[in-house]
Automatic annotation (TrEMBL):
Annotated organism of origin: Formosa maritima
GO molecular function annotations of the record: ATP binding; ATP hydrolysis activity
Keyword terms, alphabetized: ATP-binding, Nucleotide-binding
PROSITE patterns associated with the record: ABC_TRANSPORTER_2
InterPro entries (UniProt xref): AAA+_ATPase (IPR003593), ABC_transporter-like_ATP-bd (IPR003439), P-loop_NTPase (IPR027417)
Residue intervals of the ABC transporter domain: 4-218
Organism taxonomic ancestry: Bacteria, Pseudomonadati, Bacteroidota, Flavobacteriia, Flavobacteriales
Protein name, as recorded: ATP-binding cassette domain-containing protein
Amino acid sequence: MNVLEIRNLHKSYKNKIILNNLDLSCKTEDVIGIFGRNGSGKSTLLKIIFGTVKAESAQIKINSKILSQKEIISSKSIGYLPQVTFLPKELKVRDIIPFFYPNGDDQNKIFYAPKVSSFEKIKVGHLSIGQLRYLELLLIGNLDHSFLLLDEPFSMIEPLYKEVIKNLLIELKNTKGLIITDHYFDDVLEITTNNFIIKDAEKIEINSKKDLVKFQYLSSN
Ligand SMILES: Nc1ncnc2c1ncn2[C@@H]1O[C@H](COP(=O)(O)OP(=O)(O)OP(=O)(O)O)[C@@H](O)[C@H]1O
């Protein structure tokens, strides 16, 4: 089992505190949901953990070893699905897979994953939003990371692919710890083991949809 521990993560932009001395832990088989209104700091939190945004302070440990932000990236322990798409539009799906997986057996895992045969001959630019997000998640999620950070895996996705993505995340959870942020709260709550909301730069544990109302993320109607 692998354990990721974040302590005293503090981040502000100009004079505004975005994340105030926040602590967070994630271990293999955890699926942690992070909620919060637009601009509350969810993406910033994931980028700091991944190592691409600098915090004023943050102690990040993997399996009890403290890692600097540079070391996090070079350790290849953490995978990250960014909010914006990153695959080249002009390439066909089947030509992209070998870039991520040079080894034939690893490639087969992607080629034989559910639904991939239905779009492997298509150019990335012609995929539906659901197909594209699923492909991105397959490519990033099957790499050898201990933890996976997912920024909006469900946003704008058609119901069919939401289910395919959920099944993939449930499978990935067997070997990784996952941290997910998305406004599609019903989908997130279906698969998470622990949930938090970021409100006024603080992290608050929540246990149900009712708590999302209590902390003014959802209206009571
Ligand atoms: N590079 C930056 N420079 C200045 N302010 C920034 C920068 N990046 C983010 N912010 C601000 O930090 C706050 C948190 O942004 P972040 O993108 O983390 O929010 P979020 O919770 O992911 O929002 P959303 O739900 O809209 O994706 C916002 O007020 C945003 O404007």
